[in-house]
Amino acid sequence: MQDQDAIYTQLEERLERLAQVVTRLKARNAELEKSASALTAERDSALAQLSQAQTELAEVRTRNKDAASRVKNLLTQIEQMDLLSEG
Length: 87
Hints:
This protein is mainly alpha-helical.
């Protein structure tokens, strides 16, 4: 009978330790899920900022091309005016 009581006691201790391990693992899992959510939100924000920056860069490039074209046209007009005044 004492052997059986000792076995039950050991089993109860093991079950208690197992319950503690499960509790710790659940808490750690909750922490990791929270961290994952925060990182996902941070990633989404960074991607949105990147997209906005790419859009702005494309607009700047378009404006630069337009400005370069206008400058080229003005230089051509100036050259033509110089040619007319010389001729």
